[in-house]
Amino acid sequence: MTPDTHFREGLAAGEIRLQRCATCGTHIFFPRVLCPACHGTDLHWIAASGAGEVYTFTTVRNRPEKGGDYNVAMVELAEGVRMMTRVDGDPHEVRVGMPVTAYVGQIDGAPAVLCRRAEG
Amino acid sequence: MDHALRGKSAIVGLGVAGLGEAPGSNSWDIMAQSAQAALADAGLKMKDVDGLFCAMMEDSMPVLMAAEYLGIRPRHVDGTLTGGSSFVNYLASATAALDAGLCDVALVCYGSNQRTASGRLVTASRLPPYEAPYKPRYPVSGYAMAAQRHMHQYGTTREQLADVAVAARAWASHNPQAFTRDPITRDDVLAARMISDPLGKLDCCLVTDGGGALVLTRADRAKDHAQKPVYVLGAAAESTHRQISQMPDFTVTAARESGKRAFAMAGVTPSDIDVLQLYDAFTINIILFLEDLGYCAKGEGGAFVADGRIAPGGSLPVNTYGGGLSCTHPGMLGIFTIIEAAHQIRGTAPGLQLDGVDLALAHGNGGVLSSQVTAILGSEATL
Ligand SMILES: [Zn+2]
């Protein structure tokens, strides 16, 4: 199974799977066959805790008849990886540094990592 | 000791075609017209070209398509595609190829009819697989997120971003080749329709047709041609990522490294440069590149560009032709940063010509702040 397939099977099972490098401890996203930090190949899968924070974001302006404005965010997970995702709710209320919880939801019928605002 | 390639090549011909709107031409036609214009400027013929450097968005093997269209059989080709920075990158590879004898006459060329063909920015790239589901507007959303982070971290304001657009328009208002020439104010930029916050329509580059071309030869034969040669004193690249999510720090680009090495190769410092041509796909680019190239400290770019410092009459002339924001932006801009830098040194700028330009910097950017390439060009006096 390719690393990408393993990640996608995780999403289908409701799990955000990340790789961890056994050599240097770096968590890796997107999935691949070597560690981009030390280039080691001894990688293990873990399930992300979901804890994260908005690193930056944008509100994509979109006509109401096309679904209206929506959020695109860069979220840093507690494990140290950053990924593109979407924060639920009013896109105009998203802020840099906002704590979020990543979960597996759906976009256009396919499983995808989404985020909801965390308490606190 | 001088870098082995410092001053070893020279730009001897410049050409543009189809700037603005070019109905009745496709991208290859515009590329070819640009190439012919640059060769005519140099006093050379198409059959003299034996090295071809070309990136286009219409084909996966554009350099081969271009050679076929032009009717030449180059013995050296380079079609490396790093997005809009490709053409500044070719200054480095063409200099090396010329110096190594892989070719004697290098033609760098580009063309696009994206405006008349589709009316929107055409990009050769599909969205990366881990980003596509979230529907970022490519590429503006990537730059918007860099701007948002810069604002958060350093207090940069939309007003400061707007000043970049106002300066570009002020330069363009003097350039008959510019697509948009009516002066704009900070308020106009702030009031424009938002595209991808915090960037509005006037924070974004134009969508135009257009093409550009350069002819380079080894420096030792550069004076045989019709125009005053413009020497390549330094050229250096660095890339950090392809997908914006993988950019190490959204407020720091690889221009820091490309610039450092280009300055070292040229043996000059940022304050020696008379004029800068920076890849302004979006207003945030200028702030990031001025910081990363050493013109101000990290985080101070917003204050630096305020109050007309980079506009006509300001202390640091940037994008004297109007840039991608106000002159032309046919999908990839890189070649136009070089063309304007070379014109300023030759004294042949189509818009405002500055006095006494001996050193000019051209900076290319590709992808979503992914590839950064800096070149430093000089007059004969700088050799
Ligand atoms: Zn590692």
UniProtKB/TrEMBL annotation, chain A:
Stretches assigned to the ChsH2 rubredoxin-like zinc ribbon domain: 8-43
Residue ranges of every copy of the ChsH2 C-terminal OB-fold domain listed in the record: 45-103
Pfam families named among the record's database cross-references: OB_ChsH2_C, zf-ChsH2
Domain of life: Bacteria
Residue stretches in coiled coil: none
InterPro entries assigned to the protein according to its UniProt record, in alphabetical order: ChsH2_C (IPR002878), ChsH2_Znr (IPR022002), NA-bd_OB-fold (IPR012340), Thioester_dehydratase-like (IPR052513)
Protein's recorded name: DNA-binding protein
Source organism per UniProt: Loktanella atrilutea
Automatic annotation (TrEMBL), chain B:
Swiss-Prot/TrEMBL keywords: Transferase
Any Pfam family hit: Thiolase_C_1
Protein name per Swiss-Prot or TrEMBL: Acetyl-CoA acetyltransferase
Highest rank taxon of the organism: Bacteria
Native species: Loktanella atrilutea
CDD domains associated with the record: SCP-x_thiolase (cd00829)
Location of the Thiolase C-terminal domain: 237-378
Database matches in InterPro entries: Thiolase, Thiolase-like, Thiolase_C_2
One MF term in the entry's GO annotations: acetyl-CoA C-acyltransferase activity
